[in-house]
Amino acid sequence: MLVDLRPTDRLRQGNGAVVQSVLGSILHAVGDESLDLEKLRIVCDWVQYKNSFRDPVELRAIVNGSASERLEIGVDLRRAASGKHDVAVEMARALARRSEPDRLYLEPWSRTSASLIWNFNALYWKSLGLWEEVSGRPYEQALPGGESDARNAAGARDTILRLFAIWDGLAERRALPDQLHVLEIGIGNGNQARVWLDTFVEIDREQGRDYYRRLHYLMGDYSSHLLDIARVQLRAHDEHISALVLDAMRPSSTLGFLKYKTFFVYISNVYDNLPTDEIARIDGHLFQVESRAFLANESAEAIAPTVGATVHELSDLIHRLLRLGPELLADSEPKRFADAHAAVRFWAAVWDALGLEERYVALPPLDEYEFTSGINGEVLRPLMEANGDVRMHVSNGAAASFVDTLPLLHPHGMLECHDIFVTNLEGYASGFRGPGKYEGSVVNWVNGNVLTALGGRRGFDVSFKKFAFRAGSNITTMTAEVRE
User: ∠ CA(245), CA(438), CA(336), 5° rounding?
Assistant: First the structure.
């Protein structure tokens, strides 16, 4: 039996007694079940998100084509430490579920990047205006601290001064184009862009460069609602901005005209909101984490009557919500939903109760594993072979976005991204890295090691440093520039 304790920092903060109690309850339960302890893994995480897709105790099958299936027991120590959950009871429920499932499954097993949690995520950004009307608060309040670290004048000033140095050098060689393109992917509500542009004007006046006259700031976002808000925020810079609805994973499909022209690409808190798989190495063998979304029976039984449905009708109704959106769903089901706001309340209840069941299945050879279009898993081999047993995000969506954005950069341009990155694979062994829930969206830490490898293969140097302008922030700044 292997016991993997991942919340190393939390254990140093006096939670050792919790671990002893949890392990004692689990060992007692599995002893009663006569499980083969040689084939058992116990993984204890401290799930720091207030909301996640995990139960306090859950079982994960390890399927490797053999007749005797192995088992992993996953424990959320944070909820165990809260005293609100009896670990022995939760363990008994998890074991009983093997023979008598007590869940309404909403999809078949699939790699996690294909799970319908990402349909919910897309719906959130598409229908954000309605969600905010019903919830009564803007999405940014769901972030830790209630705001983004991106909105920081000191950080903006540091980047703009770097840009001015690049432009000064090109101007001296008469190689600076007349139009100076800057792109922000994931504009949000425009607060960051306003800070950045206001700071740009200040520095331009201080240094007398007249770069603002030539600046063209392009704002891209999946949410038309946020773009509308950003336009209002940026009225003072109206002549210098353009707004475009785009898919963050395929920006060049909308912005191909910027190829080799963009001096600065800015991305903040976008990569952590894009679909990702997880893969694992267990006892030297590679596995894909597969997931399927579910509602616990008691949650389904509580939600169904609120919309005049049976539990058996609930799955179809949820899939129609994801396909149509709350407004069209309300139009098509007036007896269930008085208006779009009622459909959003149904959506919020489902989202709050939504869980993900997980299992491990054997991963195909890495050269056959396509984790984003045109890129196979060979780029992952050094990571998986040099770090022992590990479970990590592949960051498929972030990788797709990153690779598709690099060709937009001018040869002297740079990409800067503020996000929550794992830059050393030991980070996956020391804490839970998602998925968690923010409001109606999904969040995962981003595997910076994957982006470093992909950038290096394309001639870019990728570097990481802790966000320097707010103490205690989890944000890391990633920079990508053409290798000299």
Answer: 80
Q: Which of 267, 160, 158 is nearest to 212 (CA)?
A: 160
If one counts the domains in the chain, the total is 1
109 occurs within a structural domain: no
Per-residue model confidence as pLDDT tens for the chain (484 residues): 788 888 767 666 666 677 777 888 887 777 766 677 788 899 988 888 888 999 999 999 999 766 557 899 999 988 877 777 788 888 888 888 888 889 999 999 999 999 999 999 999 999 999 999 999 988 777 665 555 555 578 889 999 999 999 999 999 999 999 999 999 999 988 999 999 999 999 999 999 999 999 999 999 999 999 999 999 999 999 999 999 999 999 999 999 999 999 999 999 999 999 999 999 999 889 999 999 999 999 999 999 999 999 999 999 999 999 999 999 999 999 999 999 999 999 999 999 999 999 999 999 999 999 888 889 999 999 988 877 889 999 999 999 999 999 999 999 999 999 999 999 988 898 889 999 998 899 999 999 999 999 999 999 999 999 877 666 678 999 999 998 7
Q: Where are the beta strands (DSSP E) in 275-382?
A: 278-282, 285-296, 355-362, 370-372, 375-376
Q: Report the distance separating Cα 7 and Cα 253, nearest Å.
A: 41
Q: What residue numbers bound the domain in which 91 lies? A: 1-100
In whole angstroms, what is the distance from residue 356 CA to residue 215 CA?
46
The residue with tokens 């704002």 is 219
> pTM for the full model?
0.93
CB-count burial class (<10 Å; 0-12, 13-18, 19+) for 388: exposed
- Asked whether residue 122 is domain-assigned, the answer is no
Q: Does residue 137 lie within any of the structural domains? A: no
**17 within domain boundaries:** yes
